[in-house]
Amino acid sequence: MENFKMLAKTFFGFEEILAKELHVLGAQNVEIGTRAVSFKGDKGFMYKANLSLRTALKILKPIYQFRAFNEQSLYKGIQGIDWSTYLNENQTFVIDTTIHSDHFKHTQFVSQKAKDAIVDQFREKTGARPSVDKDFPDLRINIHIDRDQCTVSLDTSGDSLHHRGYKTATNIAPINEVLAAGILLLSGWDGSSDFMDPMCGSGTMLAEAAMIACNIPANINRKEFAFEKWKDWDNDLFDQIIDALLKRTKEFRYTITGYDKAPSAVQKAKDNILNANLEEYITISQANFFDTKKEIAGPLQMVFNPPYGERLDIDMERFYREMGDTLKNNYPNTNAWFITANLDALKFVGLRPSRKIKLFNGSLEARLVKYEMYEGSKKAKFQQ
User: Fold this and answer.
1) What does each C-alpha distance from 77 to 65, 69, 118, 378 come to in angstroms?
2) What's the CA dihedral at 344, 346, 351, 355 to 10 degrees?
3) Which of 21, 168, 179, 201 is the most exposed place for a label (fewest CB within 10 A)?
4) 31 has which bridge partners?
5) Cα–chain center distance at 183
6) Contacts of the segment 309-312: beta carbons below 8 A, 24+ positions apart
């Protein structure tokens, strides 16, 4: 099988860890871009990347590039592709468009023109045409126009890869699975200590932490990828890739604990962990973090997503002060990481973060912060 170029899309701030994931998987020609990493691999690697990558939102396969500066050049460029290679007249497709260009203002216009070019090509050749299906297409096409450069890609993933397949129940402010995995990898989580999420919500951070610790492929529970409807779909190869990945899983010797003060959240988290087949690694209890203390002797890694006040009405100043007090008084020998889009609230924590990383949670600018809680005083730590 020959290698071809692919593009993995991700969130701002995750480009380097996505590139590292690709290197570890065996990708070639890995190059970091903005919110994306390009690489090369064959069809089997395309399957493996979709199954394995924790910080990729989508994996695109570019098939054609041309200059487009008006309606006519766009139409002609799309018709320059032999669409019968990827589609037949009885199938369905949909087009997703992104634009960074002065020549085109509306994504819907570009998608409509491209659709016309594709169906006209089929009509001329066969007298029939494929139709558009926005919900369950046989082929998902991606068009990206940057100034006058138009890149046409096939979407190998389909739905965003944050749809892992294990989450059936969510809470008011769920964290995206790719965002959770990226935060965990940025925090250095590798399964070599005990782990806690003290505000676990529907259990996303816990599930992603367990899959990282055990080297379980991120999307092993996912029901479908777009490439499964392609003409060159190879079911046997896909099964071989899954078998090979599952042979690389590893044992986890520590504990993963989740708390939430809402009984409904605890039940949802338990349901999701069960869906992910991770219940043997994770314990979830109903508890208010501010009433808890560290139960284990060794080092603890804590990663969580506290409320921002965006969707949950809380006294932000008091809440963040209690977070800081609980960490300082009750959690020695702990590295605590959390993400917040409420940048003003950080000053109420009352602790100095040892790291601050700029990220985005959806459209909200956020900070991933790290607080190091030492056994005894920090001064004593460095005098040992």
Assistant:
1) 8, 11, 11, 63
2) -120
3) 168
4) 38
5) 10
6) 309/342, 309/345, 310/173, 310/341, 310/342, 310/364, 311/172, 311/173, 312/172, 312/173
List of residues 6+ apart from 302 with CB closer than 8 A: 195, 196, 197, 198, 331, 334, 335, 336, 337
* pTM for the model: 0.94
Per-residue pLDDT of the chain (384 residues; tens, 9 = 90+): 899 999 999 999 999 999 999 999 999 999 999 999 999 999 999 999 999 999 999 999 999 999 999 999 999 999 999 999 999 999 999 999 999 989 998 999 999 999 999 999 999 999 999 999 999 999 999 999 999 999 999 999 999 999 999 998 666 667 999 999 999 999 999 999 999 999 999 999 999 999 999 999 999 999 999 999 999 999 999 999 999 999 999 999 999 999 999 999 999 999 999 999 999 999 999 999 999 999 999 999 999 999 865 555 678 899 999 999 999 999 999 999 999 998 999 999 999 999 999 999 888 899 999 999 998 755 444 444
Q: Which amino acid is at 173?
A: A
Q: Which residue has the tokens 């006058």?
A: 148
Write b or e for each residue in 328-359: b if 16 or more Cβ atoms lie within 10 A of its Cβ, otherwise e.
Answer: eeebebbbbbbbbbbeebbebbebebeeebeb
Strands of the sheet with 28-32, listed across from one edge: 28-32, 36-41, 4-9, 58-67, 149-155, 139-146, 92-100, 131-132
Instruction: Kindly state the tokens that stand for 117.
Output: 């070019």
Q: Strands 194-197, 300-304: parallel, antiparallel or unpaired by DSSP?
A: parallel
> Look-up: residue for tokens 């965002």?
179
- CA terminus-to-terminus distance, the chain: 57
Q: What is the largest CA-CA distance in the chain?
A: 82
